[in-house]
Structure formats: C-alpha cells, structure tokens
Amino acid sequence: MNATLSTTAFQAPVAGGLLAGGRWRPDAAGLPVLAVHGITATHRSWDVVAAGLHDRRIIAPDLRGRGRSNALPGPYGLVQHADDLAAVLDAQGVERAFVVGHSMGAFVAVRFAERHPDRVAGLALVDGGLPLPNPEGVPVDDLPAVLLGPALERLSMTFRSRADYVAFWRRHPALGPYWSDAIEAYVEYDVDGVEPALRSSANPDAVAVNTVELDGAGGYTEALLGLPGPVDVFRAPRGLLDEAPLYPEALVAEWAGRMPQLAVHEIADVNHYTIVMSDHGAGSVIPVIRARIEAAETQEGSS
User: Fold this and answer.
1) What CATH number is attached to the domain comprising 14?
2) Cα gap 246→272, rounded to integer Å
3) Measuring CA to CA, which of 57, 122, 215, 252 is 20 to 30 A from 157?
4) What's the CA gap between 89 and 173, in Å, rounded?
5) Statement: the pTM of the whole predicted model exceeds 0.85
6) Which keywords has UniProt assigned to this entry (predicted)?
C-alpha cells in the first residue's frame, strides 16, 4: 500500500467556525467513505486505510478540538461531533456515505447514525463504539488519565523540536515497534505550536469531555441497540499499550448477544493503533468494508 498517499485538505463550515480535514480521490465515483478518527488522533490516522481503498472517495475530518480543527469552540460532545459530520457531508456535496469509525470515532459514528440515519449507508466500528464500563471507584475528573494513559500524558507536554516529538512517539509501546512512513506522517501532522514549545494538536478539554462519554450513558446505549444491521465490529487483541485489549472477549461477546445485527471480526496480531495504521491491520479490515460498500451500492441500485 502507498501509505504516503497525499490528501487534499478541506474546510467545512460548522457551528463556531471551520472544521478541517483531508480527502482522497474527491472525484471518484460510487459510495464515499466517511472516516472518523479516535479521541486524540487526526484524519491522518486513515492514511493506510485510504490507500488500500484505492478506488474510493474518502472524506476524513479532524474532529472538533483536534488537528487543524483544534481552535473550534465547544461543545465537544459526541452529539456535536455527529452534527459536524453532517455539515462536512453537506460541504462536500455528499448525501450518503459508508461510515467507518475508529476508537472514539466509532462512538461518534453511532451518534451520527442515530441523528442522521438517512446519511448512513453502512457502519463499521473499529476497536471502538461498544460502551466501556468506567473503573469502579475512580472519580470522574480522573477518568481521562486512567483510561487513556500515555495518550493523555502527551497533551500536557511540550517539546523543543519536531524531532523530539517524533522521538517521544517512537518510544510508544504500541507504535514504536511498528514504525513506518505512515505513522511518522501521522505524528508530524499532529505537531502544533512553535519551537521550543511544540505540543500535540489535541485540545485536552475536548479529550476530557469525550473520555467520560464512552460508558454508554446519556442515551448512547439506546442509540447503539437501535442501529440497523449489519454493523461490523473489529477487535484488536492488543490494546493501547500493545498488551491487554481495550475490549475483552467477554465484553464483545456480551454485546454480540444483545445485538444480533453485530458481525464481530477479530484481527490477529494488531493493537489499538495498528489495526488501522499498519498494512496488516488495514489489509484485514478493508475487504470487509469493501464488501459492505458494494452490497450497499447493489441494494441502492435495485431499489
């Protein structure tokens, strides 16, 4: 896969300003893919997936509070992200898309399907989207640090140079051992500010808001249960630190029992990041997504 595939930047008017993002193959025919990144990520986490879906139009925003959208004001909740996605499709002249969400982006995708069902031709949740029970006894203010660990730690750090920021990521247990041009491009895009006080582009306030929304409260569980099928869920056996999974098998099995419309796919030998940011991970997810898109196109063509 050509992981260094260039993108075309875009901006879309949303509440409070302009939401940024990237596009691949904006003139491609057929059902577009709307790709939604994770809680501290940017649209560049989709480089490898976008390269593998080489004949598809891909639209991937930087969510409010992240990337080149980090100056947008709140609210930063999942509902606001979902409405921002609708505005992005409007700005791109797209009526319907196949929606793929990774990590927290999968939660946004579910809310988008709930609030804008006519815009969704299909849904894939990549190591995310299923409610994550909060650890017992942990105060709400401490949840981001407990749940995100090093991913949150970097948001409070400053770096003297871009090289220092890259070096920080190269030490990350879930990315360093799998380093590639695509991962380096993702890291380079995330750098914000000026030397010697560079930092991640993710707004810590936005991240904190979304972290406490991942437990299924506030009507989220009802939105998830009400999704039409099929809904593909991809699970990484190694999680945020390349060790224990974000989603234990028992938790995924519980949701599969509650939701007959779920199709669960275990992707071997990947962690929470490499499931989309490596050739092996993306190459395992893409065939399922491609088949779902083609089925949706066939169904729409016959209706």
Assistant:
1) 3.40.50.1820
2) 7
3) 215
4) 36
5) yes
6) Hydrolase
